[in-house]
């Protein structure tokens, strides 16, 4: 609205509402960095321009106190203006001087008329006529233009530091009272970066018919010539707000859109759409990512770009102002001709466009990043802790604790459900694995039994071969004797004639028959046959008994007709096992037995026999070296007061190294050559003893050999028996097949 159409009271009220005063004092005291911003409402500013706005210095004015007036070209509602103001305030925080800053806002976009701007300067001059201003800072072109035009009349002696001035202007250089920071837009870099982030070879550029917009377009096209893989520019000119979707919706959704012009309202000749509204309008109708070169469109729906950061821009101007305040003549403070621009991106818009933050250039600034819980509420927590009483703090802590407790309880329930599910799954897996292990264990035990059975079969075959060979030889001899006797009987019958039951023959024939029979008897040696037949029959009988005894020993060892645990005589188990190993005990191996009085114990006799067999087989294998001076096995049994019986089986083979002793009961561990053992015999024996609540130990400390000691618990109410041998008897047997009938304490080899 033109200035002339406003009534004077309305102009003054509007002016006061837009030209807010922000006054700050920075210095060394602890609290001079605190920010106070009080907006002035109404005409009271004209009556008392300094009432309640400045932070007074507790020590009063000093020679180092400085007053700086900052005139902003635009309203504080524009993000660019806010960032410039924040940059100025932050830039003076570390100053060594006491500085008071006054912020005034020209609002040139809403009120561009010269009459309004002159009235604004009149207001500022009247307001600060009693304030000893040290410097003036001006942001952006409209404010600087009016200040330079009216400087001699309003602020003739103040040094001026400008910022946000577009392009380097010769009229602003070499002025004795003027320095500042010039803008430089990074349009070409932003266009190239937009194409790279969206992986597009084209960029949509929205322009208008203005000379500045067309000049920017030509600048972009010429700048892209320096890039080898530059994107193609698609110009969309003079877009009307009602035609956005019709003119831009036909392009791919991923093509980036860049602004160098403004949209029109209603028609091509209508007013320009404001910057912020323009971006929001496009954002609401198009999925394409929007890029910009100016900070004013950041946080308005654009992804971002390499923009002029008002905060950083203002801090560069503050550095120039500090130099002047510290005594450097303004004529010696060189202006910044090319201010550094910043890559600034909106995190929410990047997410909407599905652009990874890893693709952003280095030193990029992200805005609208969702803060963590702690960073979001940290200040509130500390302020509440300082300002409120301990009771409020306690309530807050309790509330916080209750909330987290409920959350923890929910999580705990979820974890319980997950854990229960995992336990069920794991139980099923373990059950399956256990079944497989049990099956594997059964197979391994069967393998070991088959291995032991192979050794027994060879021994039993050897044991049976001797008496069977003897039986075969005696039966053949007996067959010859019987045949001779049958022939003699046949001869006798042929020499006699039986008629009516009475023999009838002549004396001559009788003499001839007797002579023939006598000669036959002499030929077959009937007297020897009569003497030898009883011996042969006795030998056959003894051989059959030997076979029967071997079968009986084999049945006793295997216990194939018995299942489960029963009272067992350990001495009988030892003897049957020795009998089974008779063929494997060479004539060089002596077996010494020292049996004590043992009670019967409740056990599985077949499994105990397997344990004894494994230990004895290992003892025999340990003495396979022919160079050993003594090859002997010592077997002793005894009872202790702990209600255990003990069986010691010692061999005179080499000592077992200590490192191997710890592994000797491990499954598959063996010191035998490959193919000579499964490594399961002693492991199964160990498990068998544990199953019987007993134990098996190894003693190989000295060089005299190795002893395995078996410990078994004594069953209740079982009588002590010593059927096989006399207590504490000691005998030495040299095993071998020297006869058919071994003694009670001798095992045939």
Give a quick summary of the entry.
The protein is an alpha/beta fold. The chain has four domains: 3-183, Rossmann fold; 187-307 and 340-367, Rossmann fold; 426-553, no CATH class; 562-734, Heat Shock Protein 90 (2-Layer Sandwich).
The low-confidence parts are 1-62, 497-501, 717-749
CATH architecture of the largest domain: 3-Layer(aba) Sandwich
Total domain count: 4
Main sheet: strand order: 1-3-2-4-5-6
The major β-sheet equals: 6 strands, mixed
Count the helices. How many? 19
- What is the CATH class designation of the largest domain? Alpha Beta
The N- to C-terminal Cα distance equals 130 Å
Mean pLDDT, to the nearest integer, reads: 77
* Range of strand content: 15-25%
Helix content: 40-55%
- CATH superfamily of the largest domain, called what? Response regulator
Number of strands: 25
Backbone shape: rod-shaped
The radius of gyration computed from the alpha-carbon positions, rounded to a whole number of angstroms, is 59 Å
CATH topology of the largest domain: Rossmann fold
SSE class: alpha/beta
Q: Could you characterize what this model shows?
A:
Residues 1-62, 497-501 and 717-749 have low confidence and may be disordered. This protein has four domains: 3-183, 3-Layer(aba) Sandwich (Rossmann fold), CATH 3.40.50.2300; 187-307 and 340-367, 3-Layer(aba) Sandwich (Rossmann fold); 426-553, no CATH class; 562-734, Histidine kinase-like ATPase, C-terminal domain (Heat Shock Protein 90). The chain is built from 19 helices and 25 strands. By secondary structure, the chain is of the alpha/beta class. The protein has a six-stranded mixed β-sheet with strand order 1-3-2-4-5-6, with helices on both faces. The chain has a six-stranded mixed β-sheet with strand order 22-23-21-20-17-25, covered by helices on one side. Strands 8-7-9-10 form a four-stranded parallel β-sheet, sandwiched between helices. The protein starts with 7 loop residues before the first helix and ends in a 15-residue tail after the last strand. Helix 4 packs across helix 5. Strand 22 and strand 23 (706-713) form a beta hairpin.
């Amino acid at each position: 609205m033109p200035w002339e159409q406003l009534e004077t009271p309305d102009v003054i009220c509007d002016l006061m509402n837009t030209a807010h005063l922000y006054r700050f004092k920075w210095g060394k005291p602890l609290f001079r960095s605190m920010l106070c911003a009080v907006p002035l409402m109404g005409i009271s500013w004209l009556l008392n321009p300094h009432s309640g706005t400045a932070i007074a210095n507790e020590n009063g004015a000093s020679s180092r106190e400085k007053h700086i007036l900052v005139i902003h070209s635009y309203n504080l509602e524009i993000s660019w203006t806010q960032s410039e103001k924040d940059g100025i305030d932050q830039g003076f925080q570390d100053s060594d001087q006491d500085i008071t800053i006054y912020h005034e806002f020209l609002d040139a976009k809403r009120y561009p008329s010269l009459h309004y701007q002159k009235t604004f300067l009149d207001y500022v001059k009247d307001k600060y006529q009693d304030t000893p201003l040290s410097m003036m800072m001006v942001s952006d072109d409209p404010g600087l233009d009016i200040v330079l035009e009216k400087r001699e009349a309003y602020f003739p002696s103040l040094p001026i530091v400008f910022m946000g001035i577009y392009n380097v202007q010769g009229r602003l250089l070499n002025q004795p009272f003027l320095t500042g920071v010039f803008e430089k837009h990074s349009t070409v870099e932003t266009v190239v970066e937009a194409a790279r982030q969206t992986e597009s070879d084209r960029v949509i550029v929205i322009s208008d018919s203005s000379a500045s917009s067309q000049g920017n377009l030509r600048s972009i096209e010429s700048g892209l010539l320096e890039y080898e893989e530059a994107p193609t520019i698609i110009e969309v000119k003079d877009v009307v707000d009602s035609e956005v979707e019709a003119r831009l919706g036909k392009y791919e959704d991923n093509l980036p859109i860049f602004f160098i012009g403004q949209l029109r309202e209603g028609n091509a000749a209508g007013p320009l759409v404001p910057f912020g509204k323009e971006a929001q309008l496009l954002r609401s109708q198009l999925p394409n990512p929007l890029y910009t070169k100016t900070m004013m469109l950041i946080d308005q729906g654009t992804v971002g770009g390499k923009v002029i950061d008002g905060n950083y821009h203002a801090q560069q101007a503050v550095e120039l102002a500090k130099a002047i305040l510290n005594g450097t003549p303004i004529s010696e403070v060189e202006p910044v001709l090319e201010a550094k621009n910043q890559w600034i991106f909106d995190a929410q818009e990047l997410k909407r466009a599905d652009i990874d933050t890893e693709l952003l250039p280095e030193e990029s600034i992200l805005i609208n990043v969702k803060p963590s819980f702690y960073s979001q509420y940290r200040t509130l927590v500390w302020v509440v802790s300082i300002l409120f009483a301990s009771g409020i703090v306690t309530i807050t802590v309790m509330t916080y604790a209750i909330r987290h407790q409920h959350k923890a309880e929910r999580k705990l329930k979820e974890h319980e459900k997950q854990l229960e599910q995992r336990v069920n799954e794991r139980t099923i897996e373990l059950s399956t694995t256990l079944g497989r292990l049990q099956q594997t264990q059964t197979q391994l035990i069967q393998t070991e039994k088959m291995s032991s059975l192979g050794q027994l079969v060879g021994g039993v075959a050897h044991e049976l071969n001797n008496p069977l060979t003897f039986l075969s030889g005696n039966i053949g001899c007996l067959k010859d004797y019987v045949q001779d006797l049958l022939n003699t009987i046949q001869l006798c019958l042929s020499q006699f004639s039986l008629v009516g039951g009475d023999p009838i023959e002549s004396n001559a024939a009788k003499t001839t028959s007797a002579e023939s029979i006598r000669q036959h008897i002499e030929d077959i040696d009937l007297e020897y046959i009569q003497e030898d037949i009883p011996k042969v029959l006795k030998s056959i009988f003894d051989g059959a008994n030997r076979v029967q005894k071997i079968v009986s020993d084999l049945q006793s060892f295997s216990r194939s007709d018995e299942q489960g645990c029963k009272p067992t005589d350990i001495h009988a188990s030892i003897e049957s096992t020795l009998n089974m190993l008779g063929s494997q005990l060479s004539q060089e191996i002596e077996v010494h037995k020292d049996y004590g009085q043992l009670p019967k114990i409740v056990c599985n006799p077949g499994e105990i026999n397997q344990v004894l067999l494994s230990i004895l087989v290992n003892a025999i294998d340990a003495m396979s070296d022919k160079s050993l001076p003594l090859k002997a096995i010592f077997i002793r049994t005894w009872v202790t007061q702990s209600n255990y019986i003990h069986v010691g089986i010692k061999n005179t083979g080499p000592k077992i190294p200590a490192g191997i002793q710890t592994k000797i009961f491990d499954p598959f561990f063996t010191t035998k050559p490959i193919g000579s053992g499964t490594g399961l015999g002693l492991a199964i024996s160990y498990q068998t003893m544990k199953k019987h609540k007993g134990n098996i130990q190894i003693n190989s400390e000295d060089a005299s050999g190795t002893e395995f000691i078996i410990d078994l618990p004594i069953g209740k109410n079982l009588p002590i028996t010593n059927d096989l041998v006399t207590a504490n008897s000691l005998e030495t047997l040299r095993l071998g097949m020297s006869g058919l009938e071994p003694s009670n304490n001798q095992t045939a080899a």
